User: Fold D-arabinose 5-phosphate isomerase from hydrothermal vent metagenome.
Amino acid sequence: MNDPDLVKRAIASAVKVAVEESEAVGRLESVIRSQPFSDALALCFDCKGIIYILGMGKSGLVGQKIAATLTSAGTPSVYIHAGDALHGDLGAIRPGDVAILISKSGQTKEVVQLIGFLNDQKNPIIAITNDENSSLAKAARVALLLHVKSEACPMNLAPMTSTTAMLALGDALAAALIVAKNFRPENFARFHPGGKLGWMLTAKVSDMIDQTKNPTLKEKDTLRNAVVKLVEYRIGGVNIVDEGGRLTGLMTDGDLKRIMVDSDGETLDKPVAEYMTRNPITANIEASAAETVDLMENRKSQIYVLPVVDKDHRPVGILRLHDIIRSHM
Assistant:
């Protein structure tokens, strides 16, 4: 591509895709706030069987993703290619199942041919389509309209805007079901034990710290004692406890450096209670890796060293961001 004008026109076309698809997704807000979406949500929520998603071509590929998302989020769902359904796979759909049929035109032959069987078996049909007057929309119990004006494809031929809108509607339905079913991270972890995400949800703080390394001082101990502990353990912090052994504060390497810059020669002999961070943010020994990462990072200033406590608020160790990263390597 040595023609600058060609590159410019190509980039302009790519920008047009981003703009038009984002606008199409924005228009879906009115659909999601409408009664038909609430009706579709109720059908899926009340379904005692499986939600089957059927489509053809690019719409079918979107259907596969929607089915995968619903299933991983606690709503059993299976995708069937509409052509395969017409050649025997309709046998998988049982009374009590819900069918989501996807077709931009609402007239895709193979998809429309499914309607008779589904109606005979009294399977509720949810249509995702762009034409409210189409055969699919008219036959469906609920029709969710895409409101796509045109495809972002430079030729207005390849499905781009429509498939993005279909996917967004599917994700919106999945998100609504997650809330409606009170689906929790621990539930998600059961269905997704593999990979980094699975590890983040299933690993506990106890899996990431060495409980033999638990540098601890009492409030009356001196900063000099803190220096010794920091050098001895080299894990970035020292837990400070009261006479009952419960955590009251934290002294980190960074705290000590700042103190030494502003101090006089007698500072090292002063009690740590005068300089420690009181009532620091802590992680429970049984907390998940995901919860702990959120605790350390989702704040104005990132935390790199976190005291770990048991149910009685007694320190059992110190967790560093480095420990979380290393545990998953």
Observations:
- The mean pLDDT is 92.
- Residues 17 and 235 are 49 Å apart (CA to CA).
